[in-house]
Amino acid sequence: MKTILALITLAVAISPSLAQVSVYGQCGGIGFTGSTTCASGSVCTELNAYYSQCLPGTATTTPPTTTTATTTSTAPGSTACSSSRTKFQFFGVNESGAEFGSGIWPGTLGTDYTFPSPSSIDYFVADGFNFFRVPFMMERLVPPSTGMTGPFNSAYLSGLTTIVNYITSKGAYAALDPHNFMIYNNQDITSTSDFQTFWTNLANQFKSNSHVIFDIMNEPNTIPASTAFSLNQAAINGIRSTGATQLILAEGTSWTGAWTWVSSGNGAAFAALKDPLNNTAIEMHQYLDSDGSGTNATCVSSTIGAERLAAATTWLQQNNMKGFLGEIGAGSNADCIAAVSGAFCSMQTAAGSPWIGASWWAAGPWWPADYFTGIEPPSGVAISQVLPQAIKPFL
Ligand SMILES: *[C@@H]1O[C@H](CO)[C@@H](O)[C@H](O)[C@H]1NC(C)=O
Ligand SMILES: *[C@@H]1O[C@H](CO)[C@@H](O)[C@H](O)[C@H]1NC(C)=O
Ligand SMILES: CC(=O)N[C@H]1CO[C@H](CO)[C@@H](O)[C@@H]1O
Predict the structure, then answer these.
(1) Which residues have any ligand 1 atom within 6 Å of their CB?
(2) CA within 20 to 30 Å of 342's CA: 13, 77, 142, 365, which one?
(3) How far apart are the C-alpha atoms of 287 and 257, rounded to whole Å?
(4) Peptide bond preceding 365: is omega within 30 degrees of 0, i.e. cis?
(5) Which ligand is in closest contact with the Cα of 364?
(6) What's the Cα-to-Cα distance from 98 to each of 8, 32, 36, 130, rounded to whole Å?
(7) 292 alpha carbon to ligand 1 midpoint, in Å?
């Protein structure tokens, strides 16, 4: 303790604190050279050796050992991962809202569902992110009265198009994500022909926008891997039949979990997936709580992220496929922050760079303020620690 106090005194003596750091800003950590003075009402709190932050409150927490170490590391995530990383081509967040109001069709805009906020898009674009996954509900776009091969509801299509165009006008990519779990109008989707028509129609709407990505179906889970494969292949065939050339993302059964990609049978089934343009990636999802559901802020361990991705990474490499981690989320605690960093590090250092992108679950204006993986600015739970410590180091 004595040593720490001496170092603090030294740090204060030698660093002219010219500016005040705003709440949640960085105020210390190995290699950090900025101001260590927090805005009033917040206190500089050491979260780990590499990162101290101005957190709300006036408690007398142990101040950081700022500027006393000599390494040049910047953040915990990137330290173990600083060499031979291939950055993601696509990196961002899910933007929830249009899929809210489960089972309420068509539902009322502003009451049952909403569209993502342009200000949220701006926030992440300013940080350097370039990917937004936009979940929507099929029954609102293609009403059950006329079925999935029928015409689009023009108001819902217009809302979706507006936010998609906003995202792509910023130079970022927007993934259209029917968030239906391969269930439409309370029935499992079984007709490859109908599903192909749905995607043909949707691709025709968006094929002229090069920054739109087609995310075929969120998390099939009640159907065999072979059925999920056939439906995804039909969608690819439909999309390509329109002349659309953009990236396609295909998801398997078992909630498209990375940790079960091989054991669920997805690996065997999806090895045969064909895209005439070779521009389809396998989208997988991975949560780090004990049952992998993304419902508990406790992570299994600090290394569970890399561990749960390992078999999927090997499958991608062996099958010469590209992968996209479309959902990852975890709590704001030391184990989870290390586990998320480890996951991204394992992806960016994998031989052959099989992983082309990742997106955090989730931003969106309607998540409860205490939703443990919520990343809606300015104060979603994941904004203060996970974003700077476990996500931004991998930009
Ligand atoms: C797609 O990949 C296959 C196998 O590697 C190759 O034969 C084919 O020419 C590629 N097609 C395009 C359009 O690049
Ligand atoms: C979350 O998981 C931890 C560890 O497995 C457990 O102790 C805790 O009760 C769980 N919390 C909830 C809300 O399920
Ligand atoms: C893990 C997780 O947060 N899953 C969510 C996915 O999105 C649906 C619809 O928004 C939610 O109901 C799930 O909880």
Answers:
(1) 277-278
(2) 365
(3) 8
(4) no
(5) 3
(6) 49, 40, 41, 20
(7) 35
